[in-house]
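Exercise 3.2. Students should predict the tertiary structure of the chain below and write it as structure tokens, then compare their answer with the key that follows.

Predict this chain's 3D structure.
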Amino acid sequence: MNRLKLGNPTNLAFTVLLISSVLLCLYVVLPMSLPKSFEQTITPEQAMREEQHVPSYEQLAEPVAEQELEVKQEAKQEVKQFAQQLELETQQSGQRQVNALAFDQADYSKQKVHYTDKVIVLAYHHIDEKENGITISPKRFRSHLQRLKKEDYNVISMEHFLHFMKGEAKVPQNAVVITFDDGYESFYTHAYPELLNFGFHATKFIVVDSIDHPKAPRLTWDQMREMKQNGMSFYSHTYDHHDKVKAGSGNTLMPMLTNPIYLENEKRIETEDEYRKRIKQDLLKAENRIEEELGPQYRLLAFPFGAYNETVIGVGKELGIELFFTTKEGINTKGSNEIYRIHAGTAYMSEDDLMWRMKLYHKK
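Answer key:
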């Protein structure tokens, strides 16, 4: 049998051509034969690991420390002017409702479009240097706001969001609402200055009794009045039903907003009428106190522990509550009154993790 002699120019050329043809097949034909869904087989865990390799915005951003004071002042003035404008519009219309923000779509023409006609709502609780399950550091919170800005998310007010959900207003692309639960003073000392710096709105859902009778550092009504003048808003997290109580003769504890409680003195469970009357009194007291201190406004409710049932929804509607904020994750479209939120205020949630979490809902 004759062997191929590579020393022969003809044989050498033939060998090179053969090898090139094989490589071309591997490069062109094989990828075309793979299923189109191949790239979608990456798991959420793998996606999370990939996101963690993305450089943080703090590493990419230009230094702004020397301009920080000036930017804060400008942002504060801008938000104050907005609050004054809304107040003027309300007075002129003779309504107590705040008009939705108007926006010019052309302003967003150069942005990346993640989603349209939808809104992502973020949930936070407390800001402190010592982080835990519901507490994040000031630095982490700042990095979240920076990343939202960099990735072309548009933070809108709660009032704008409400009008959108009722089908009365449009929202910009990539719309986001920022919310905080409970009544921690850190909203005033840590979150508020950063929100002003970025020109962002935010809403605080307060447990009203903890404001009226504070046992730890909590917001004051004066602080809330100041912040409301600068674009922040405050709504109900119940009056004093952010607690768990016995729901039977045993020791099982359940959220008191959603369960008839066990009456120790009478050795029985509340009747349905008693339960309904109790939660109605609580929700109404919260709304009345907020309006006494902050003036007439919309009625919105964030559920303690994210727990709710049809009775709570029904009683809330009777009292004029228009939106109910849950702890279920998702993205919001107009027409619903049960609001999805993404829990962003936890110690493990880096800016990259937050972006990954939000991206899960871009096309849903």
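Discussion points: The chain is about 40% helix and 15% strand. The longest helix spans residues 68-93.
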